[in-house]
Amino acid sequence: MKQYETIIGLEVHVELATRTKIFCGCSTAFGGAPNTHTCPVCTGMPGSLPVLNKKVVEFALRAGLATNCSINQYCKFDRKNYFYPDNPQNYQISQLYLPICHDGFVEIETEAGKKKVRIHEMHMEEDAGKLIHDEWEDCSLVDYNRSGVPLIEIVSEPDMRSADEVIAYLEKLRCTMQYLGVSDCKLQEGSMRADVNLSVRVAGSDTLGTRTEMKNLNSFKAIAHAIEGERERQIELLEMGRSVVQETRRWDDNKESSHAMRSKEDAKDYRYFPDPDLPPIHISDEWIQKIREELPEFREEKAARYQEEFGLPEYDSRILTESRHLAALFEEVAGLCGNPKKAANWFMVEVLRLMKDKGVEAEKVRFTPQHLADLLEMVDKKQVSPQNAKKIFEKVFDEDIDAVAYIEEHGLKIVEDTGLLTSTISRILDENPGPLSELLGGKEKVMGFFVGQIMKEMKGKANPASVREALLAEVEKRK
Predict the structure, then answer these.
(1) CA 120 to CA 186: how far, in whole Å?
(2) Is domain 418-478 classified as CATH 3.30.450.40?
(3) Cβ of 236: how many Cβ atoms within 10 Å?
């Protein structure tokens, strides 16, 4: 069998996190009742006129500058004409001839090292509505809430060669957009969607094969499966001496197979022409410079700083910077408690554990940094046991309680009353003559049993080191 090379390019649609739609004042909030976030403009009523949301242009400029794109300082909108039930105007306002951004790149990590994936263009456009298929009634209904939600479409060059490279590229884009604050990029809510253009060719050939486009991909797992499935399908056709048809296909992740939707259109099929209702956009040098200066510290820069400034391992630095929100929480806690390594350890173990156990996304973690910093300080000063601190932090994580007040209120502060500790040790030794006899006989393992019993009796309010020291002193008296 011949060896084949996979050629992949992506069209990534990113919903922008503006409060209102691209051409009207309707809300972009996700999850509203069907057709409640609509008006004559976004439902395509005759005579309604679009008015461009300036924030959409700003967000597109942020995204373009962050992905090393050149900016078209004179750009305009075009009409992409097609009929579909969720497209109320029978055209989509997009950009073909003069997109806002072009010729950029992002750098990804691959098994072979760093690789640049080129971005052909990035343009602004409006989203379509959503078809809801009612199998019970055997009909389809249309929800126009999403119609007019602002998008940027990021069109890559066909530079990717595997599913792993595609996922690395998408993860890099998602992280970049989230750091910029231009989108939450939640695939499950459709705010980041990818269409995969894929072809195969005999290894060593310079000629591109016939490509297909796959839609309906709403998770990284589905994208990886679709790429592998389509690659195998195309190779099988070529090995049988048949041709690959240029078409749009829909991937079914449950069946792990794709099926043809329609022939793949070219730009000429959409009869693009300049939108007559929207004037051209002029972007000044000053505006570009202002946005450039406001770009945040991105993940790679932040992770490198953590290693240099805080002395954290590379792995910890990458995990802590995966979310801009979580990184900001960590940095504030580290600054307040004055111990970045201890703060990092707490985030890497306890924060991530609770996020996983409770199914909480990083952006939803909402405790006050001061509350965790106070708790870490009390652990350092041996005012609260590590075991109790973990239980208290769960309350901080869930309810954002004041850790210091909670410890005082529930009597969880470590007791320095040596008289109480001595009497507790004496009583527990008396209540356990068998283990005491083994301890007196030199069986050191029994020491752990007694420390555990004493700590339990003291309800975690004793310092383990103090408990062990006092226990050894009492045992010596009984020899």
Answers:
(1) 24
(2) no
(3) 10
